[in-house]
Predict the structure of Transposase.
Amino acid sequence: MLNRSTPNAPPQTALTDPEIKLLDHLVKDRGANRAQRTTISHYVVKIARLGGYLARANDPPPGNIVIWRGLSRLTDLESGAALGAKIMGN
């Protein structure tokens, strides 16, 4: 809902810094300019891509199920990264 009301808001309004770093590392940017990479709408598409959204030119915006799948996967990845850092001592 935040993406719909203020798509140009910074991603920190809805995501934590570790989530943003994981998304930047796992989901590569596709042709977005630098100003667009710092908006919440850009990160919503990254989350949707984790959930199976293809982000093609003529695709409709991602739906609730795709966003839910992406958030679920992001949560699992974040837990694994935190656990790995704790075990490895980094």
